């Protein structure tokens, strides 16, 4: 009986020891099990909220067609920004009418034909700077008046809105100004003398002396001119009678100065226009009116003047 109790006690002790060993092993291997590498954890990337490039509207002015151009335009001051230095191609700015801002040549020619000097707009054709920001004025043509003009910045997927019913300015500030003393456009600049009477004229090399007529002369000095442009004809219209006189053609000239009609011109040249007008030899005649010069490029310029 005593032997059975002893065996039972030994068995219980053995079970306790085995259980203790097992628990100890579990605890040991549990603490010493290799941990999962930290690189296996999902990586969370913080968003980069720093703006690297942008185009923003600073201000704008609107100029409406006066019937001479066939389109309207806005001049917008934009702020271009790029952290690596500004180098923005204007073809990436496009209006909702499908016009890219690098396509200005067509409009420049139309403006010149309308007597408007594109250079006076002071609009840029390229946007480049070593600095991170640059303010520049851009030329924006459009058709529909008093509407919201949408300009898309395709690089930054941003729309710039311009209300063309506001900030209207006078188109006349950009027009070429010709005076009685100067005829000026994009392609030529001619200074004009006061008229005087020529008395020694020739026609095809022969002496020419009109009766009951006076030949009034204007000297024109060429200060600037594009290659190939000529004055093909000129007209004087008298203000009080609307009577028209056409300048004598190139077969007529003075012994003192040549005729400018249909002549190849260079900077520094001085030639003349000759108008044959009825005059009373018994009294000094004076005729107020306008002279219109017609050029070989299809343009024409009119100035006020006086024949005396």
Provide structural commentary.
The protein is 13% helix and 40% strand. With 308 residues, it is mainly β. The strands form six sheets. Strands 9, 10, 11, 14 and 18 form a five-stranded antiparallel sheet that branches. It has a four-stranded antiparallel sheet with strand order 16-15-19-20, with no helix packed on it. Strand 15 and strand 16 (244-246) form a beta hairpin. The longest helix has 31 residues, at 2-32. It is rod-shaped, with a radius of gyration of 43 Å.
Counting DSSP E segments of at least 2 residues, the number of strands comes to 20
Distance between the termini: 162 Å
- The number of helical elements comes to 2
Classify the beta-strand content into a percent band: 35-45%
Percentage of residues assigned to helices: 10-25%
Silhouette: rod-shaped
Q: Could you list the spans in which at least 5 consecutive residues all have pLDDT below 50?
A: 36-48
Q: What does the radius of gyration come to?
A: 43 Å
Average pLDDT metric? 84
Structural class: mainly beta
Largest beta sheet, briefly?
Answer: 5 strands, antiparallel
Succession of helices and strands: HEEEEHEEEEEEEEEEEEEEEE
């Amino acid at each position: 009986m005593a032997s059975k109790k002893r065996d039972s006690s030994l068995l219980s002790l053995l079970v306790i020891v085995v259980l203790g060993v097992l628990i100890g092993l579990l605890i040991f291997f549990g603490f010493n099990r290799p941990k999962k590498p930290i690189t296996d954890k999902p990586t969370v990337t913080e968003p980069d909220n720093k703006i690297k490039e942008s185009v923003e509207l600073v201000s704008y002015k609107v100029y409406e067609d006066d019937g001479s151009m066939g389109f309207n335009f806005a001049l917008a001051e934009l702020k271009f920004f790029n952290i690596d230095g500004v180098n923005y191609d204007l073809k990436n700015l496009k209006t909702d009418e499908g016009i890219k801002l690098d396509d200005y040549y067509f409009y420049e020619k139309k403006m010149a034909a309308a007597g408007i000097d594109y250079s006076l707009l002071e609009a840029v054709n390229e946007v480049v700077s070593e600095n991170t920001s640059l303010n520049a004025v851009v030329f924006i043509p459009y058709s529909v008046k008093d509407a919201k003009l949408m300009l898309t910045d395709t690089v930054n997927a941003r729309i710039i809105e311009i209300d063309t019913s506001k900030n209207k300015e006078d188109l006349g500030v950009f027009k070429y100004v010709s005076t009685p003393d100067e005829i000026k456009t994009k392609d030529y600049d001619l200074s004009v003398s006061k008229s005087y009477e020529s008395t020694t004229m020739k026609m095809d090399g022969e002496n020419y002396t009109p009766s009951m007529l006076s030949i009034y002369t204007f000297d024109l000095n060429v200060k600037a001119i594009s290659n190939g442009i000529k004055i093909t004809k000129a007209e004087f219209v008298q203000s009080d009678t609307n009577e028209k006189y056409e300048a004598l053609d190139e077969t007529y000239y003075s012994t003192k100065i040549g005729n400018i009609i249909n002549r190849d011109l260079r900077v520094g040249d001085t030639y003349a226009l000759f108008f044959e007008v009825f005059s009373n030899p018994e009294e000094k005649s004076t005729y107020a009116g306008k002279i219109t010069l017609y050029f070989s490029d299809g343009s024409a310029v009119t100035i006020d003047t006086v024949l005396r």
